[in-house]
Write a structure and sequence with these properties.
The complex is a heterodimer of chains A (about 250) and B (about 300). Chain A has about 250 residues and is mostly helical. Chain A is about 50% helix and about 5% strand. In chain B, strands 2-1-3-4 form a 4-stranded parallel beta sheet, sandwiched between helices. Chain B has a 4-stranded parallel beta sheet with strand order 6-5-7-8, sandwiched between helices.
């Protein structure tokens, strides 16, 4: 069948003929691009159930593929490969191998919730993206994404003190992802502030570093949350039949 | 908000307002004081979970937000005001989830008991945004009277970001027709600044995303998203982008610098919290509303407009 929406099909699944005559009709040129016929046998039929069981994936079964999510998507607008509708389709069909081709960009969802707003079936595609990115890491298909490193550093800080201090979160993130702190734009940013108001800025910076903000009486709450998180993570690993190692930390 | 006393509300600043969003904290308090509104900070508040904790576990985020609501209720308040979109969204979401998701309610109860405090029950307090607070406690007429057109001639693009309106279901009071906020085309900030005399430009990216969740972890995406917002605001004729969220504000400022350094794209539009603009409209100096803490230095523009 000739097709127009070539961008939706993987290039290797397309076949273009310079000269082609079908039943005596010359279909050379624009009309001679075809999707190659193929047979798929390696379905992962448990896949939808697995995503469904992870936080955020609860409503994936409701999707009827209208494409409102992709149409509304912030990331899709600047990166056409980012396609929530398509990934939900692949998960529901159990086409794991196909999904894995996009494994390195799924984490890039910015949680703007435009998809959730647009979805007529309350699928919460934003949650499905997070569940899928989480699953890719749990299964070891990808290393921990920069976003996961950020989330974990942030959460650690909240559990420890009840609050975060942005300088500390930033430093912890750069350390976790092995990036140097002296990024030219960061230097320009801080430099600009220091040039304008040296004393005020340095005092605020020093204050945050020396006096780490804390919530009074937080210890019991922090511990109670930690217990709960550990219990949940163990249950997830068990459900996914993982050995407890999960993703590597991406610094090897 | 019907019937609640908005002249004296519980105040939940959140972590960002003690750090990068310090100017927002300061200007919000100053504006409140000038308008005769009292803010009482939630005692021993904790982080609401921001955009990060839910990715580790959504129920933990619900608990974190609910703990703050429980304290506000204990202090005898029926309304808690949060100027940060992230905090506002999370407190609203906790309220919704506790009422609609039995699992979230069960986990919240379990952690609250272990932590040794009362479990928050939905319906205890109402969370409002700083925009609701000023608009409903003071009103546009009073603002108009007090500001006397001080922002006249200032062209403003009002930027609301994602979490003030999305997802729609956690904001049951919105989209209720005239007088209520719209999730598709929010206008409370427009209304407030227009009352203070500002000339709002027609800005199509009011609720576009700045990539704040990945400001650092996926900087290239954030820079592209922010650059689009900045250049569109300039194309619409705006001199200032008014913000109502510390994450959006810092994201816009940070990636304005990054776009210049990394992509060589310089933009000149200034970024100010709506409370900073409102404060100056009420006659405050630029330093009183913390303009010196803004990264995009607006002093020249403010001087030209006779502000601050």
């Amino acid at each position: 069948m000739p097709i127009h929406e070539k961008s939706l099909i993987r290039p290797e699944n397309l076949q273009t003929n310079d000269h082609l005559v079908i039943d005596g009709v010359d279909v050379s040129g624009h009309w001679s691009t075809f999707i190659k016929p193929r047979t798929i046998t390696d379905y992962n039929e448990a896949m939808e159930a697995v995503i469904w069981a992870l936080p955020g994936g609860e409503n994936i079964h409701r999707c009827w593929q209208c494409g409102s999510c992709t149409n509304a998507c912030t990331v899709h607008a600047i990166e056409p490969e980012f396609n929530p509708r398509y990934w939900i389709y692949l998960i529901r069909q159990g086409l794991e191998e196909e999904l894995l081709r996009d494994k390195d960009i799924i984490w890039q969802c910015v949680s703007c919730n435009k998809c959730t707003y647009a979805c007529p079936r309350d699928v919460v595609p934003e949650g499905v993206m997070k569940a899928t990115a989480h699953w890719l890491e749990l299964k070891g298909h990808t290393a921990k994404s920069p976003s996961t490193h950020f989330d974990e550093g942030f959460t650690e800080s909240v559990l420890a003190t009840g609050k975060i201090e942005e300088g500390r979160v930033l430093r912890s993130f750069f350390k976790r992802t092995g990036q140097p702190l002296n990024q030219p734009w960061l230097v320009a940013l801080v430099g600009g502030l220091i040039r304008r108001f040296p004393l005020a800025f340095l005092i605020r910076l020093g204050w945050g570093t020396v006096f780490r903000p804390r919530t009074r009486g937080w210890r019991k709450a922090g511990r109670a949350i930690e217990d709960y998180v550990q219990e949940r993570q163990a249950a997830q690993r068990l459900a996914l039949r993982l050995d407890g190692k999960g993703a590597t930390d991406g610094r090897q | 908000m019907d019937g609640n006393d908005l002249k004296r509300v519980a105040y939940y600043p959140g972590c960002a307002l003690e750090g990068t969003g310090h100017a927002y904290n300061r200007s919000t308090k100053e504006v409140g004081k000038a308008l005769g509104l009292e803010l009482v900070e939630v005692k021993d508040w904790n982080c609401c979970g921001a955009m990060e904790v839910k990715n580790v576990d959504p129920q933990v985020q619900t608990y974190l937000s609910a703990r703050n609501l429980a304290i506000a209720e204990d202090m005898g308040f029926d309304t808690v005001m949060s100027p940060c979109n992230g905090c506002y969204h999370n407190l609203k979401k906790a309220e919704y989830d506790l009422a609609h998701n039995p699992h979230a309610a069960e986990v919240n109860d379990r952690i609250s008991r272990k932590a040794g405090h009362k479990t928050y029950q939905p319906g205890g307090v109402e969370t409002i945004h700083a925009l609701d607070w000023i608009r409903d406690a003071v009103g546009e007429d009073e603002l108009r009277r007090r500001a006397m057109g001080k922002l006249a001639g200032l062209k403003v693009a009002n930027y609301y970001g994602c979490m003030y309106t999305r997802p729609r279901h956690i904001y049951p009071e919105k989209d209720k027709g005239p007088g209520s906020e719209s999730t598709l085309n929010p206008h409370f900030m427009d209304d407030i600044l227009a009352a203070a005399g500002a000339e709002n430009v027609d800005f199509p990216l009011k609720t576009a995303c700045c990539g704040g969740a990945h400001s650092l972890s996926d900087s290239d995406t954030s820079t592209k998203l922010v650059l689009n917002i900045l250049t569109t605001a300039e194309a619409c004729g705006a001199e200032v982008i008014a913000t109502e969220c510390p994450t959006c504000h810092t994201g816009l400022e940070m990636h304005q610098v990054r776009a210049e350094k990394v992509l060589g794209r310089k933009t000149n539009v200034k970024i100010l919290y709506f409370t900073q603009l409102l404060g100056m409209a009420l006659g405050m100096s630029a330093s009183k509303v913390g303009v010196q803490e803004n990264m995009s230095d607006p002093s020249e523009l403010l001087r030209a407009k006779g502000l601050g």
